[in-house]
């Protein structure tokens, strides 16, 4: 014998409200059709009609206010997402500039190392452990910057193409997560 699960109080309240709304609307339709056909209504029916109309107006006002609040929240989320996109694009531009500078330094270092004098200078530089560590750190940062730049551009593109209702907040979170994640450089 299967045990029957009772609906929650909230669900029962929603069902009760829906049933009351349906009964109220049915009553309104009957009264309005009688009035339209020219049948006079009694004072009790007129009071009932007024009460039903007032409840419907109150429900409509409440729904309109809730929708207005929801719309304002969506506007705020959209504005926050646009701000996140602008910030991510600026970060991407900054990282791109850093990457270009690191590549120029590395190209210069390689060109200098290829010449005899450059080799001697490179050997002198490599004797200092700090300079070697700095070059490796610069290469690692350049790799991280290049990877982050690609991910940020892809996410910004998806955000622009996505739905402005709710999805923008998710993409903004993903952009923030991406910027906070430091990938391991590829060997």
Describe the structure.
This protein is an all-alpha fold. It has five helices and no strands.
In short, what is this structure?
The protein is an all-alpha fold.
Offer a few descriptive terms.
187 residues, mainly alpha, 5 helices, rod-shaped
* Continuous helix count: 5
Query: How is the main sheet built?
Result: none
Shape: rod-shaped
- According to DSSP, the number of beta strands is 0
Integer-rounded radius of gyration: 34 Å
| Unreliable parts | none
Category from helices, strands and their pairing: mainly alpha
Q: In percent, how much strand structure appears in the residues? A: under 5%
What helical percentage do the residues reach? over 70%
The overall average pLDDT, rounded, is: 80
Q: How are the SSEs placed, and which strands pair?
A:
Blueprint: H1 9-36, H2 43-114, H3 116-127, H4 129-161, H5 167-180
Helix pairs in contact: 1-2, 2-3, 2-4, 2-5, 4-5
